[in-house]
Amino acid sequence: MMIRPMQESDLSTILEIEHACFPAPWAPQSFVSELRDNEYARYFCLEHEGNIIGYMGLWFILEEGHITNVAIAPGYQGMGGGEFLMRSVIDLMVKEGMERMTLEVRASNVSAQRLYERLGFVTAGVRKGYYSDNREDALIMWLDIGKE
After folding, report:
1. Model pLDDT for residues 52-98, shown as the tens digit of each residue
2. Positive or negative, the Cα torsion across 100, 105, 111, 113?
3. Catalytic annotation present for 104
4. CB-based contact 141:126 (threshold 8 Å)
5. Residues 114-129, buried b or exposed e (16+ Cβ, 10 A)?
6. Catalytic: which of 18, 40, 104, 130?
7. Of 18, 34, 55, 116, which one is the catalytic site residue?
8. Residue 125 phi, psi dihedral angles, 5° rounding
9. Is 116 a known active-site residue?
Protein backbone atom coordinates (compact mmCIF):
# COMPACT_ATOMS: atom_id res chain seq x y z
CA MET A 1 0.00 0.00 0.00
CA MET A 2 1.06 3.57 -0.62
CA ILE A 3 -0.37 7.04 -0.22
CA ARG A 4 -0.09 9.98 -2.57
CA PRO A 5 -1.70 13.39 -3.01
CA MET A 6 -5.19 13.29 -4.50
CA GLN A 7 -5.66 14.78 -7.98
CA GLU A 8 -8.81 15.83 -9.81
CA SER A 9 -8.33 12.88 -12.16
CA ASP A 10 -8.92 10.59 -9.15
CA LEU A 11 -12.39 11.95 -8.44
CA SER A 12 -14.47 9.36 -10.29
CA THR A 13 -13.00 6.61 -8.10
CA ILE A 14 -13.12 8.79 -4.97
CA LEU A 15 -16.81 9.49 -5.59
CA GLU A 16 -17.56 5.77 -5.99
CA ILE A 17 -15.96 5.12 -2.60
CA GLU A 18 -17.72 8.15 -1.09
CA HIS A 19 -21.14 6.92 -2.26
CA ALA A 20 -20.46 3.37 -1.08
CA CYS A 21 -19.39 4.49 2.39
CA PHE A 22 -21.59 7.42 3.40
CA PRO A 23 -25.36 7.97 3.58
CA ALA A 24 -24.85 11.69 2.79
CA PRO A 25 -21.91 11.71 0.34
CA TRP A 26 -20.12 14.85 -0.73
CA ALA A 27 -21.04 16.30 -4.11
CA PRO A 28 -18.35 16.17 -6.82
CA GLN A 29 -18.03 19.96 -6.73
CA SER A 30 -17.15 19.82 -3.02
CA PHE A 31 -14.07 17.76 -3.79
CA VAL A 32 -13.17 19.93 -6.78
CA SER A 33 -13.44 23.05 -4.64
CA GLU A 34 -11.27 21.52 -1.94
CA LEU A 35 -8.58 20.53 -4.43
CA ARG A 36 -8.61 23.77 -6.45
CA ASP A 37 -9.56 26.54 -4.06
CA ASN A 38 -8.83 25.60 -0.45
CA GLU A 39 -5.26 26.54 0.41
CA TYR A 40 -5.62 24.74 3.76
CA ALA A 41 -6.77 21.43 2.25
CA ARG A 42 -4.61 18.32 2.02
CA TYR A 43 -6.17 15.28 0.34
CA PHE A 44 -4.55 11.87 -0.08
CA CYS A 45 -5.34 8.63 -1.90
CA LEU A 46 -4.55 5.17 -0.60
CA GLU A 47 -3.49 2.79 -3.36
CA HIS A 48 -3.19 -0.98 -3.34
CA GLU A 49 -1.71 -2.68 -6.41
CA GLY A 50 -2.24 0.50 -8.43
CA ASN A 51 -5.90 0.92 -7.49
CA ILE A 52 -7.33 3.65 -5.28
CA ILE A 53 -8.96 1.92 -2.31
CA GLY A 54 -9.35 4.84 0.07
CA TYR A 55 -8.78 8.50 0.74
CA MET A 56 -8.39 11.04 3.51
CA GLY A 57 -8.80 14.79 3.58
CA LEU A 58 -7.93 17.40 6.15
CA TRP A 59 -7.52 21.11 6.62
CA PHE A 60 -4.16 22.25 7.99
CA ILE A 61 -4.70 25.57 9.77
CA LEU A 62 -1.93 26.97 11.98
CA GLU A 63 -0.66 23.91 13.89
CA GLU A 64 -3.96 22.02 13.82
CA GLY A 65 -5.46 19.57 11.37
CA HIS A 66 -9.18 19.03 11.00
CA ILE A 67 -9.89 15.71 9.30
CA THR A 68 -12.76 16.28 6.89
CA ASN A 69 -13.21 12.74 5.63
CA VAL A 70 -11.69 9.27 5.63
CA ALA A 71 -13.02 6.31 3.68
CA ILE A 72 -11.89 2.88 2.61
CA ALA A 73 -13.70 1.04 -0.19
CA PRO A 74 -16.04 -1.59 1.30
CA GLY A 75 -14.16 -4.55 -0.20
CA TYR A 76 -10.96 -3.43 1.54
CA GLN A 77 -12.31 -2.50 4.98
CA GLY A 78 -10.94 -4.37 7.97
CA MET A 79 -7.60 -5.11 6.27
CA GLY A 80 -5.54 -2.36 7.93
CA GLY A 81 -5.73 0.16 5.10
CA GLY A 82 -7.48 2.82 7.15
CA GLU A 83 -4.90 2.62 9.90
CA PHE A 84 -2.04 2.67 7.37
CA LEU A 85 -3.54 5.71 5.63
CA MET A 86 -4.09 7.63 8.84
CA ARG A 87 -0.68 6.81 10.33
CA SER A 88 1.02 7.79 7.07
CA VAL A 89 -0.82 11.12 6.85
CA ILE A 90 -0.20 11.86 10.53
CA ASP A 91 3.52 11.25 9.99
CA LEU A 92 3.53 13.61 6.99
CA MET A 93 1.66 16.30 8.91
CA VAL A 94 4.05 16.09 11.86
CA LYS A 95 6.90 16.75 9.43
CA GLU A 96 5.01 19.85 8.23
CA GLY A 97 4.62 21.13 11.80
CA MET A 98 1.15 19.95 12.78
CA GLU A 99 0.71 19.54 16.53
CA ARG A 100 -2.91 18.44 16.95
CA MET A 101 -5.62 16.78 14.88
CA THR A 102 -9.36 16.62 15.32
CA LEU A 103 -12.28 14.88 13.67
CA GLU A 104 -15.96 14.12 14.13
CA VAL A 105 -17.22 10.55 13.99
CA ARG A 106 -20.75 9.21 14.11
CA ALA A 107 -21.74 8.05 17.59
CA SER A 108 -22.83 4.74 16.02
CA ASN A 109 -19.56 4.15 14.12
CA VAL A 110 -17.85 2.08 16.79
CA SER A 111 -15.31 0.48 14.43
CA ALA A 112 -14.02 3.91 13.35
CA GLN A 113 -13.92 5.07 16.97
CA ARG A 114 -11.80 2.04 17.89
CA LEU A 115 -9.37 2.83 15.05
CA TYR A 116 -9.06 6.45 16.15
CA GLU A 117 -8.49 5.37 19.75
CA ARG A 118 -5.71 2.98 18.62
CA LEU A 119 -4.09 5.98 16.95
CA GLY A 120 -4.28 7.95 20.20
CA PHE A 121 -7.37 10.09 19.61
CA VAL A 122 -9.47 10.83 22.69
CA THR A 123 -13.11 11.88 22.84
CA ALA A 124 -13.43 15.51 23.91
CA GLY A 125 -17.11 16.23 23.36
CA VAL A 126 -20.30 15.66 21.39
CA ARG A 127 -21.90 17.63 18.58
CA LYS A 128 -25.64 17.00 19.01
CA GLY A 129 -27.54 16.32 15.80
CA TYR A 130 -24.42 16.91 13.69
CA TYR A 131 -25.21 14.67 10.72
CA SER A 132 -27.80 16.12 8.36
CA ASP A 133 -29.08 12.79 7.01
CA ASN A 134 -30.45 11.50 10.32
CA ARG A 135 -29.48 14.11 12.97
CA GLU A 136 -27.14 11.61 14.61
CA ASP A 137 -24.67 12.95 17.16
CA ALA A 138 -20.96 13.15 16.39
CA LEU A 139 -18.18 12.50 18.85
CA ILE A 140 -15.41 15.11 18.69
CA MET A 141 -12.02 13.44 18.98
CA TRP A 142 -8.56 15.02 19.34
CA LEU A 143 -5.00 13.77 18.95
CA ASP A 144 -1.90 15.54 20.21
CA ILE A 145 0.91 14.74 17.77
CA GLY A 146 3.35 17.61 17.96
CA LYS A 147 6.13 18.71 20.20
CA GLU A 148 6.54 16.63 23.31
Report:
1. 999 999 999 999 999 999 999 999 999 999 999 999 999 999 999 99
2. positive
3. yes
4. no
5. ebbeebebeeeeeeee
6. 104
7. 116
8. 170, -175
9. yes
